[in-house]
């Protein structure tokens, strides 16, 4: 029904230059009100964009305009990873969207990224979240190249629907497997000569190079006290994590590696959140309710059950209706796809080199790491960015130094040349904005505004660094 409606308007527009009809393209995606949301002054849109009419493949998006002056703020696309996880579920409702679900209602997020930008959350590839392919054979083998191509088609069609954003400063951001999606899409945009005003990309705890990234896990576990000295030695010398990961993917785990990973698992235990080794885990839906109450009483506490709450929220009929969403070929909305068979060999395709070509093209690249993540730890990422800077012959423009949010250290940063920078977010998880929303927002705002991260903590009295280094 909806696609027929669009086709009719498309025909009308082919014959007459009709601004009002173009405008009504996105008026139909305007969200009146999300169930349980507090009153807000900015506009929200959601709906499907057809990627392939013949195969009936369509992407679902959720778009939030900037809280103030959206016409003068940049446009930012956000992509979660997986591969196969939802940017609406994770990015919008658990990380940096305007609201977070809490029980039956949505609570305003005070550190939402739409304070400084218009933010577009995309569920990609087809098979993720509400995005679908009617021809289910599509799900049998989806890879990075197909994903980037579909993402580009999505953007072209989305800009047709929102033409006022087409010349806007445009940034692509994401995390985790977004370390593939984001640079690959940026690269395709440059190659395709699409007339988007791409200014930069930012990726958090990204997968950039299989061996370096995954092998940094051992050191992270060990240095955070999650595994013993003896196991660390096995884990680095006998069978390392990239071997284990590769063998698990190919279904041929050797007895030696099996022994090592069992030892690691036994020492880690079942109740540590590897995406943030300092966070508590969400124990159950039942205990979640008391967590929610605690959360409301005690504001700064992080709701570790927000993912479960998002899943419940997005599966409510009235919520799907308000979002102009519907389920096609699946019974439930899930945070990560249960139908998609992603080509796992693509995990081994390095994307660090793509960052290099983006930098050379004058696209700003920010790579950041939540420093409590053991899944794609900061050490691997920092090593890769350092090596890239060296390879590109970039000199350090901001030496490795702390940056600040308020009066406290928010992380460390280093910049190379004018287009490449690295930053950690102190105390942050794999999904950095989930556990460190204020620090993440400062990083995000600095990035889209092309500003240096705050280098002073606003305190007049400097503490003597040497005293700190010598005292125990
Ligand atoms: C369904 O998709 C598969 C794989 O993309 C393709 O080979 C096939 O031709 C499609 N089927 C139809 C009926 O279009
Ligand atoms: C991991 O193990 C493989 C196979 O032994 C080896 O080639 C590689 O160098 C190791 N990586 C690290 C970081 O130790």
Describe the structure.
This protein is an alpha/beta fold and 472 residues long. It is 39% helix and 18% strand. Strands 1, 2, 3, 6, 7, 8, 9, 10, 11, 12 and 13 form an eleven-stranded mixed sheet that branches. A two-stranded antiparallel ribbon has the order 4-5. Strand 8 (169-175), helix 5 (178-192) and strand 9 form a beta-alpha-beta unit. Helix 6 (210-223) runs antiparallel to helix 7 (229-237). The chain binds 2-acetamido-2-deoxy-beta-D-glucopyranose (NAG) (2 copies). The site of one 2-acetamido-2-deoxy-beta-D-glucopyranose has 6 residues, from helix 6 and helix 8.
Describe the structure concisely for a colleague.
The chain is built from 17 helices and 13 strands. By secondary structure, the protein is of the alpha/beta class. The chain has a domain at 1-28.
H-E order: HHEEEHEEEEHEHEHHHHHHHHEHEEEHHH
The percent range for helix content is 25-40%
Oligomer: single chain
Which residues form runs of ≥5 with pLDDT under 50?
Answer: 1-22
The total count of helices amounts to 17
| Shape category | globular
* Ligand identities: 2-acetamido-2-deoxy-beta-D-glucopyranose
Rg, Cα atoms, Å: 22 Å
Q: Please report the total strand number as a whole number.
A: 13
How would you classify the helix and strand content by structural class? Answer: alpha/beta
Strand content: 15-25%
Provide the residue-averaged pLDDT.
91
Pfam family, one: Peptidase_S10
Main location: secreted
Subcellular location: Secreted
Organism: Fraxinus pennsylvanica
């Amino acid at each position: 029904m909806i696609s027929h409606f669009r086709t009719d308007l498309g025909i009308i527009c082919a014959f007459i230059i009709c601004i009002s009809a173009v405008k009504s393209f996105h008026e139909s995606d305007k969200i009146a009100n999300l169930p349980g949301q507090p009153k807000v002054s900015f506009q929200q849109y959601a709906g499907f964009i057809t990627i392939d009419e013949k195969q009936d493949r369509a992407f679902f998006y959720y778009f939030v305009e900037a809280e103030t002056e959206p016409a003068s703020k940049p446009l930012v696309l956000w992509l979660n990873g997986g591969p196969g996880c939802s940017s609406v579920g994770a990015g919008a409702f658990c990380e940096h969207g305007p609201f977070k679900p809490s029980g039956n209602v949505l609570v305003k997020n005070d550190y939402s990224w739409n304070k400084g930008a218009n933010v577009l959350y995309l569920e990609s590839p087809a098979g993720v979240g509400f995005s679908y392919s009617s021809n289910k054979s599509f799900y049998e083998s989806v890879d990075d190249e197909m994903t980037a191509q579909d993402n580009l088609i999505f953007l072209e069609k989305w800009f047709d629907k929102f033409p006022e954003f087409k010349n806007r400063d445009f940034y692509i951001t994401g995390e985790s497997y977004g370390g593939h999606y984001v640079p690959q899409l940026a690269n395709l945009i440059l190659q395709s000569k699409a007339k988007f005003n791409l200014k930069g990309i930012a990726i958090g705890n990204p997968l950039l190079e299989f061996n370096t990234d995954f092998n940094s896990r051992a050191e992270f576990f060990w240095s955070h006290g999650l595994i013993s000295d003896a196991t660390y030695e096995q884990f680095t010398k006998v069978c390392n994590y990239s071997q284990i990961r590769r063998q698990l993917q190919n279904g041929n785990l050797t007895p030696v590696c099996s022994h090592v990973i069992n030892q690691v698992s036994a020492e880690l235990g079942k109740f540590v959140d590897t995406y943030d080794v300092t966070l508590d885990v969400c124990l159950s839906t039942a205990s979640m309710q008391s967590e929610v109450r605690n959360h409301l009483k005690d504001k700064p506490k992080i709701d570790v059950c927000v993912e479960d709450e998002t899943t419940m929220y997005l599966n409510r009929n009235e919520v799907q209706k308000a979002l102009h969403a519907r389920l096609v070929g699946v019974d439930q909305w899930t945070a990560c796809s249960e139908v998609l068979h992603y080509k796992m060999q693509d995990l081994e395709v390095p994307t660090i080199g793509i960052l290099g070509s983006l930098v050379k093209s004058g696209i700003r690249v920010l790579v950041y790491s939540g420093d409590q993540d053991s899944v794609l730890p900061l050490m691997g990422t920092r090593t890769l960015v350092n090596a890239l800077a060296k390879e590109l012959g970039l000199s350090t423009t901001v030496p490795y130094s702390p940056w600040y949010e308020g009066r406290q250290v928010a992380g460390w940063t280093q910049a190379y040349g004018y287009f490449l920078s690295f930053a950690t977010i102190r105390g942050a998880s794999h999904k950095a904005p989930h556990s460190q929303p204020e620090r993440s927002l400062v990083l995000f705002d600095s990035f889209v505004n092309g500003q240096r991260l705050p280098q002073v903590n606003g305190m007049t009295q400097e503490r003597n660094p040497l005293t700190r280094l010598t005292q125990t």
